[in-house]
Structures are given as structure tokens and as C-alpha cells.
From TrEMBL:
TM segment ranges: 12-30, 54-72, 129-155, 167-185, 220-237, 243-269, 276-299
Keyword list, A-Z: Membrane, Transmembrane, Transmembrane helix
Protein name per its UniProtKB record: Lysylphosphatidylglycerol synthase TM region
Species, as recorded: Pontimicrobium aquaticum
Amino acid sequence: MISRIPYKTKQFFFVLIKLSIVVGAAYFIYDKLVNNKELDFLVFVDFLVKNGAFSLKNIIFLLVLTIFNWFFEILKWQNLVKSITQISFLEAFKQSLASHTASLFTPNRIGDYAAKTIYFRSDQRKKIVLLNLIGNMVQMSITLLFGIVGFYIFISQYEVDISYYKLVRLLTYALIGVVAIGFGVSHKRFSIKGFSFLKIWTFVRSVSAKIHLKNIAYSLFRYLIFSFQFYYLYIVFGVDITYINAMVLICTMYLLVSIIPTIFIFDVIVKGSVALYIFGFVEINNITILSVTTLMWLLNFVLPSVFGSYYVLNFNLPTASNIDD
């Protein structure tokens, strides 16, 4: 049916889709800044101005950390795509930022998967989805690995009120979940993003070890960079905390954020709430915690989406002769 639609009509609707993505992302950012119940935008701005901590050196350093964070994300995507086709760093840059913009206001980052596929031929799109899934799963694995270590140290150092009854119940649910997944895998019913576990595993094994190792390395570099950026913002605001102690709290926070069921559009709210709880153990005031969380969101999500909007608007629909059915 798609192939029967006139090319001009497709082009018109495609422009509407691009505008919808950019406008939707812009409204999402505006709404989260202006209508944030936890941190009033005017209070946030006033706090930044009165704090006077943002010298030119600090701003440049924070932007450099953001650039390196996304530099490794782009390298990671270029490396993954290499398993099926060669793309330049510039092309990986465009795809990563444009898909990030598309994912900003979509549940579970569905927009990221959909946006990346349109850059490739129809026969490559399923593999592109799987490659994107592999990249995200490795990044999540790094978060969980550091998070488990951080959480163990966290509950050892601080008086955390843990209900062991709830913990046992949670572990029971987790065990049931593992058994259910195992049953689903054995019967080929379990799926992630529409793909069976067996198909995902087969595809993962088809990708070279070199690409997997680079993927892990880039994911690790990203984690170390944005966690250090989180720590550095606390130093900027005059918080007296060592890097090791900060990393324990940061890793624990990202672990809890990762395992709490939520959709991506509420990500900034969930992170703020979890950060308030975790960093409350070292008696950092709420306005500082929420300001740091908001700035991390602005630097690593909002700023890249601004550049991504440009590439979304400038993406051209393939010519009629090259459109895939």
C-alpha cells in the first residue's frame, strides 16, 4: 500500500512527521523545565545565578565532558553498524543525534529504534534494530555491574532501612521471572523488541568479537564520563565529597533508576526523586541535588536534541526510484 501512495504525498506527510518530532521534543523539554513540580524553573535559575559557580572554565569543561560522552556513543554506533555496512563518523553522528531527538518523548525510547532504521535499506532494518538493542543492552549491563558494586558499598556504609521481608519477596518475584523467561526461551516465546531470545542470541554470536569488545569499551568510557560529570557538578556547587564516595552514590542512583519500571518521558522526574533519596544520606540540600540532576539532563539529553533537531528537519525522503516497499 505504501508503494501506491504518490511520492509527493509521501513527501508531504514525511515533512509533517519531521515537524511533529521537533515540535514534540521542544514541547517536552519546555514542559519538564517549566512545569517541574520538584524544582521550580525560576528557583533553579535564581539558584544558578546566586551560586556564581559557573565560570567560563567550568562551562567549557562540562561541555567537553558532554562532547566526549556523545563522541563515544557515536563511535559505538559506527562500530556496531560496521557488522553489516560501513558508515562514516559524520553519518553515525547524524543518525545518533536525530534518533536521540526522536526518542526524547517516546515511551521506552521506541523513537530511537524507529529513527535509525530509516537511514538503511529495508533488508537491513531488522539487523539495525538488533544492533541498537545490543548497544543499549551492553550500556545497561555496565550500569548494572557498577550499580551492584555501588549498592553493596552503599548499604554497608549507610544506615539504610531495608525491609528484609520485601527483599525476600522481590527476590522471589525475580526468581519466578527468571524461570518464566527460561520457559519462554525453551518454547521460543520470549521476545525483546519483537525478536525471540534465540534469534537475538544467534545474531549476537554472528557479530565479531572485536566489535563486541569495542562496544563494551565505548559503553564503559561513556559511563565513566557521565558519572564523573555528575560528580564534578557537585564540586562546582561547593559540595565537600570525595570522588569514591560520590561514585558509590552515583552508581547506586543509576542502578535504582535503571530497575524502576518507568517510561522514558518520566526519566528526569524519576532520577530527581531517586537522587534526593540517595544523596540525602550525605546531607546535601535538595535544591543542589535537583539542580545537578537537571543540569545533567540539560547537558546530555536536551543539548544533543537541539543539534539532532537540525538533522531531523534536514533528513530527505529517498527519491521515488529508491523508496523501499
